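Re: the 191-residue chain
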Amino acid sequence: MTLHHDKHHVGYVNNLNAALQTQADPKSRRHESEEAELQAVISFNAGGHINHTLFWESLAPPGSAQTQESASPKLQAALTEKWGGMAAFKAEFKKVLLGIRGSGWGWLACSQEKGDLHLMSSKDQEMVPGGYKPLLGIDMWEHAYYLQYLNNKAGYVEKIWEIVNWETVEGRFSRSMEEVYGSLHDLKASL
C-alpha cells in the first residue's frame, strides 16, 4: 500500500495541481479542444485524488477496533435490512468488484434523496455519481493489489474486509455530503 499511496496517489495530486496551474495561467490561451482536453485531465486527476483520499480514510490496521463490524451499528442494521446480513452484503459487493472490467472502483453509497444503500461501480477515476454519498470505495485498479496479489483480484477482495475502517464508514453514513468530502468538497463540487 505504501507504493500505491506514495506513487500513484501522489501522481494524481501532482498532475491535478499542474493542470489547475495551466488552467489558471492568464497567459495560456487555449482553443476549445485544448480546453476540453485540459478539463478531462483535471477531472481524471481530481477523481483519482478524491477517490484515493476516501479509500485511505476507509482503511485501518488489521485487527484494530475500527475494523470490527461492531464499530458501525447503524450501518450494520441498514446493511442487514437491505441485504440480509454482512455475508450477503459482502457477496453482492464482491460481484460488483469482480465485475469491473479494466480499472475502476466499487462503491457502497447512500442515496441522498431516500437514504437507501446502493452498490455501484465507476470506471477509471470517475467518482460516485451526483445524488449519492460515498460510504466505502474499493480501488480495483491493478496498482491497488498487483504487488501483493498478482492477478488474484478475488483474493484482494476477500482480504480487503480485514482492513476496512467500519468506524469511518459509519461516520459517513450519518454525515452530510459536505462532511463526507471534507476539505475536498469544493474540488468535488467544481467538477
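The chain is about 55% helix and 10% strand.
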